[in-house]
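One-letter codes give the sequence; the fold follows as tokens. An example follows:
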Amino acid sequence: MVKLLIIDDEEGFRRPVAKILDKHGFRVLEAAGGEEGLRLAAEECPDLILCDVEMPGMGGYEVLAALRRELVLAPIPVIFLTGQAAPSQVRRAMNLGADDYLTKPVNLTDLLGAIGARLQRRQLERATPEPETPSAQGDSFLINTATEKRLVKISAIKSILAYGEYSWVYWDKGEKGALLRKSLKQWLGELPAERFIRVHRRAIVNLDFLDRVESLPGGHVQVHLRDTAEPIPVSLRLAPALNRRLKAAGDQGQRSGA
């Protein structure tokens, strides 16, 4: 039986949806908040997650980010059910790796259709051999997954977020990126060091896409990339190296303009 997890703090919405899905043959788990939802996801490994965006404590975006950081949980499809219909909210969800975005009140036909489409896609991915390590093609990489096959220029890669031996690669104009079987260490050995820098134990960024560096309380820093909703944290250990690179680039720019 297909197992679904609903994460929503509004019982008046969560319970009726759960009952309807139960009548349609799904086994439905419920969580009243983000933390509880993550715990249930780790324990039960559902086939699909329906998640609200605005919840007390851990919200839907944080839930999604936490799921995508875990290798076992990262492939689980996540559909947001929310009252927020602004294009910026939809784009943020998709940039984080959400699989679909439905606004409340949810039409039953749309909900069942979205669930069916995502489950079918995941079944196809499970039946397809694991994604190969992307191979270099001159100044490009071949991205070849169950749902994506294209050449992506190295210069177009904006950021890489690693999860063990796997990594999410995001490129310019790419809506969702791609999950590839390639570790951060492998990427570091192949990407041009003058353009890419490691800013976190799980993250590499392309400095050509750097929009700004934001200082946070406690000496923490995060970087914002162009056309990317979510900032990327910089570890305290790697922040000095980033500062040196930015200073060197600034000094070089001044010399070039002199």
DSSP finds seven helices and 16 strands in the chain. The longest strand covers residues 157-163. Residues 128-134, 254-258 have pLDDT under 50 and may be disordered.
